[in-house]
Amino acid sequence: MKKNLSQKLIESHLVSGKAQAGKEVGISIDQALCQDATGTLVMLELEQMELERVKTHNSSIYVDHNLLQTDNKNPDDHLFLKSAAARFGLHFSRPGNGISHVVHMSRLGLPGETLLGSDSHTCAAGSLGMLAIGSGGLDIAMAMAGEPYYFKMPEIWGVELTGELPDWVSAKNVILEMLRRHGVRGGVNRIIEYYGPGVKNLSAMDRHVIANMGAELGATTSVFPSDEITKDFLKRNKREKDWSKQEADAGCDYDQHDKINMSELEPLIAKPSSPGNVVPLSEVEGEKIYQAYIGSSANPGFRDFAVSGEIVRDKRVPSDVSLDINISSREIMENLAEQRYLQPLLTAGGRLHQIGCNGCIGMGQAPASHQNSLRTVPRNFPGRSGTKEDRVFLVSPEVAAASALTGKITDPRSLSIPYPKIEEPDDWKVVEGLYDEPLPLEEAKKQELVKGPNIKSLPKPDPISENIDVPVGLKVGDDISTDEILPAGSEVLPFRSNIEKISTYVYYQHAPRYQEFVQKKKTLHAIIGGENYGQGSSREHAALAPFHLGLRVVIAKGFARIHWQNLILFGVLPLEFNDPKDYEAIEEGDSLKIDSLWEQVDKGESVKVTLGGKEISAKHSLSERQIDVLKAGGVIPWFKIKN
How far apart are CA 529 and CA 338, in angstroms? Predict the structure, then answer.
């Protein structure tokens, strides 16, 4: 039977289940990745699990999110992560080395392998021909402990690429076109596999741009073949021996199909405040801007900064425009400097920020209130930038640089300069020594975990009872993101290792009445959600912190994949309405009752729920393993019982 590449990657790592869409499968994990915003919990979870050493052949921690050191909290956590990496046998990437996705792709990614990361944009490594999936931190801890990764087998969505990108239209427009067509739910329960004659016209970093933002479609991951382009990328990074060919069988089939002729693409833009709100740039051309932001994991490549530098070379941006340069890795910065592409950005008035995620997650570079900010980042959810009433547009580097020069949203094709053709240099400088390698086991055993005063133990598991009788503490609408449940940013993220403190920020911007409810009632409760509840970031704090406040049940019209899994892992029951009309009749404060929960769950997918005195039908979609996890009170007690 002819197979597509996604099927090959899954079946070569399959350890349980059958690879049939909608059924739970378990796959072995070769590599694991976490970053400092999620990795502190992962390391505390490994400690709670009493793990001696990670069992993946390659696990890494990247300090790339919480870089601002305004007090002791972030640097204390950096030291904790460094000590935990030494204790458990991980690579450690120090602050300033770079954003996890681009650094991992350059230094450790391997075609044909599986990668699980506690960051939703881990899927960027699909650009190398890997099966790279973002998930919650507890899933990563389990993978590091040698457990399979369990998920519902997705459909495989084949997207045929033809043609070649025109001048002034770069890879960002491919993924914006996908979002224009399909929105933020279009990839839910799907793997997107790109193939066709156009693939050879995309560099490895072009593919990274497209694979990275597959997360904004809700996709499980995105996959590109590993071909001669991939080989050349690894060769430039002194890793040619790590290359292997990975491709679909000729004539294979896909569950869903789409096709993009890249030659026909034009500059696109995602308007506030959703990555799915994509229109042709011409619809908003001419609007005044305050900020143009270049960088992030969604446009991290050498050419993204170099082409921007050439656009602004020998020019100055207006004094009322902030040109923010967020370089993605030290290696890329050093190569830009050596090839003389960095200086034009600075001379033009660009503000060079430290290497890392920064403004993408609201960690600095916040725009002024009610001002237009053009960004090459992957997301523009409300308030994510750090400014509550933000107006963030998602664009390509070409659009950001051209607009910075004019002070208004500008089609770069209107500039009176030739399109800069940028190629990565053959004498690419590889920066060594910025990873700490894993210690030998006997030396690692002697390492002590360095815990600052802000690092607190995880809350104890509290299994859901057989009979539930709780109030509805909050009702929210469609497409609620984890940024809205628990924001990132410089105020909140320093408390990522202090669940009691960070829980005070749950819904504090989007629905402050929730904090009023939990502080007044101090009781177990439920939340009612709309479609795609929990979209966006993989941060497990958005499940763990509400659990700490008493959340035990979420009933929604539908869930985003990672958040649904995170709720289960921490012992929160996720249910879906069988009839979406029942959502409309529910009010905050209504009582929610479920009798004989486990008896109902063991019998099938249907669960009878009494809401506000009315009986409705919901479904659970849980596997037998997930039922056992919930009965145990979460995945860590389940792991200890099993082992």
Answer: 51
Helix (H), strand (E), coil (C) string for 36-81? HHHHHHHHHHHHHCCCCCCCCCEEEEECCCCCCCCCCHHHHHHHHH
Q: Which residues partner with 576 through β-bridges?
A: 556, 619
| Assigned token pair, 61 | 């921690």
Of 403, 434, 241, nearest to 311 by C-alpha is 403
The residues near 30 (Cβ < 8 Å, ≥ 6 apart) are 13, 56, 57, 58, 110, 113, 114, 115
The pair of structure tokens assigned to 424 is: 């990565």
Reference 148, options 32, 29, 30; nearest CA is 29
pLDDT for 468 equals: 95
Q: Shortest CA distance to 41 belongs to which of 496, 489, 491, 569? A: 496
Q: Where are the alpha helices (DSSP H) in 302-351?
A: 302-312, 330-338, 342-347
Instruction: For the chain, give the number of residues.
Output: 643
User: Residue 494: its pLDDT value, please?
Assistant: 87
pLDDT digits (tens, 9 = 90+) for 117-142: 999 999 999 999 999 999 988 899 99
Task: List the 155-162 sheet strands across, edge first.
Answer: 221-223, 190-195, 155-162, 256-261
Residue 408 and residue 389: Cα distance in Å, rounded? 20
pLDDT tens string 296-317: 999 999 999 999 999 999 999 9
Coil vs helix vs strand at 88: helix
Distance CA 12, CA 450 (A): 39
DSSP 498-549: -HHHHGGGTTTTT-THHHHHHHHH-S-EEEEE-TTBTBS---THHHHHHHHH
Name the helix (H) or strand (E) containing 601.
Answer: helix 597-603
Distance (Å, rounded) from C-alpha 626 to C-alpha 611? 24
Per residue in 440-496, pLDDT (tens digit) is 999 999 999 999 888 887 877 788 999 999 999 999 999 999 999 998 888 888 898
Give per-residue pLDDT as tens, 77-115: 999 999 999 999 999 999 999 999 999 999 999 999 999
pLDDT digits (tens, 9 = 90+) for 259-278: 999 999 999 999 999 999 99
422: number of Cβ within 10 Å = 19
Positive or negative: CA dihedral 346, 350, 353, 358: negative
What does pLDDT average to over the chain? 94
User: Which amino acid is residue 1, in one-letter code?
Assistant: M
At 35, is the secondary structure helix, strand, or coil? strand
